[in-house]
Amino acid sequence: MGARFLVFACLIALAATGCGTGERGDDAAAVTARFHAALEAGDGQAACQELSEDTASKLEQQEKKPCEKAILGLELPKGGSVAVQRVQMLSAYTSLAEGSTDFLNEGPEGWKISSAGCKPTAPGRPYDCELEG
Amino acid sequence: MRRFLKTNSLSIVFLVLFLAALSGQAVAGHADFNEEQVRHGDPEITLSRYLVSSDFGTAVMENWQSEYLQFTLFILLTVWLLQRGSPESKELDKSGRESDEQQKVGPHAQQNSPRWAKVAGIRRTLYENSLVIVMTSIWLATWFAQSVTGVTQYNSERLDHQMDAVSWWHYLGRPDFWEKTLQNWQSEFLAVGSMAIFAVYLRQRGSPESKPVGAPHTATGIEG
């Protein structure tokens, strides 16, 4: 009885945290890589495709320009490789080897970037992001 | 079959109630989770995805661990601690692990005693404490599961607010973990402590958790 409960509890813990996070992390990292590669290529449209709807819409309102033009005017890393990726439920962050961090959310269309070009401020405080949703 | 149901009705009814309540929690928790997603402009998730989420895992595990802790402590502490007038307490002169004769072990075991109660050594020591060993194991396993699911849920919220994730070890020192833990513990301790006192003065006719209705308030260790 006890052993069954232990196994059940451990299965729940694993299911809730571990299952599939590796593959989903790779997917999130691929979105980040495509986003920064698009910025390097000057392809604003491709970069905007990787953004969440809210983030793209907020950017357009702030800059009063279409997303594909506004995104190229921000000081975001152009190119770069993902060094750290971490998935937690429907959220993820990816850090470039060059030091900038992006935050992503998972929806029906896969991972989308909600904040980009983020740098840590102080311990326990939110990152300061160049692009924020 | 009818006889089996009648003579096991207590555990069967509680199993059914447990499954019904857990299903209800899953449905209500899923709806609540999706309401929150909509409020944040995030996509809704399916029920099957919610059932393996840390949100559901934490909600279930934090309650399980506190229940098992409650009964583990109750079983263990009532070996030594007494409450005058309570049917939850042993008689006032019986505090402690009691003699082999009182516990019917070793040479004092009866013919129909469990096999491990008749033998000496590690097997009897294990069997003498088997209830607390299993209950403690379940408590620790579910508390660990709460911490693992809790750190994922905690980190998910941090990421949503552009903060980095913390390690499991770091999470064990965070207020979130202890608030979830202690809010459950306090209610369990209150319920057990108050029941031990209420049962001194109040009665429920026919219940083994109560003294017989006519038993005096000072009678300790008598079950109805």
Could you describe the 3D structure shown?
The complex is a heterodimer of chains A (133) and B (224). With 133 residues, chain A is of the alpha+beta class. Chain A has 5 helices and 5 strands, in the order αααααβββββ. The longest helix of chain A is centred in the N-terminal third of the chain and has 20 residues, at 21-40. The model of chain A is unreliable at 15-20 (pLDDT under 50). Chain B has 224 residues and is mainly α. Chains A and B meet through helix 1, strand 2 and strand 3 of A and helix 4 and helix 8 of B.
Fill in the keyword field for this structure.
heterodimer, A: 133 residues, alpha+beta, five-stranded antiparallel sheet, 5 helices, globular, B: 224 residues, mainly alpha, 10 helices, 65% helix
- Content of β-strand of chain A: 25-35%
**Largest sheet descriptor of chain A:** 5 strands, antiparallel
Proportion of residues in helical segments of chain B: 55-70%
Estimated radius of gyration of chain A: 17 Å
Q: Which consecutive residue ranges of chain A, at least 5 long each, have pLDDT under 50?
A: 15-20
Question: What integer value in Å does the Rg of chain B equal?
Answer: 23 Å
Order of helices and strands of chain A: HHHHHEEEEE
| Mean pLDDT across all amino acids of chain B | 95
Oligomer: heterodimer
**Cα separation of the termini of chain A:** 49 Å
- Number of helical stretches of at least 4 residues of chain B: 10
In short:
The complex is a heterodimer of chains A (133) and B (224). With 133 residues, chain A is α+β, with helices and mostly antiparallel strands.
Fold topology:
The complex is a heterodimer of chains A (133) and B (224).
Chain A: H1 2-17, H2 21-40, H3 44-49, H4 53-63, H5 67-70, E1 82-88, E2 91-96, E3 101-107, E4 110-119, E5 128-132
Chain B: H1 2-7, H2 9-39, H3 47-51, H4 54-80, H5 100-103, H6 115-118, H7 122-128, H8 130-160, H9 168-171, H10 175-201
Helix pairs in contact in B: 4-8, 4-10
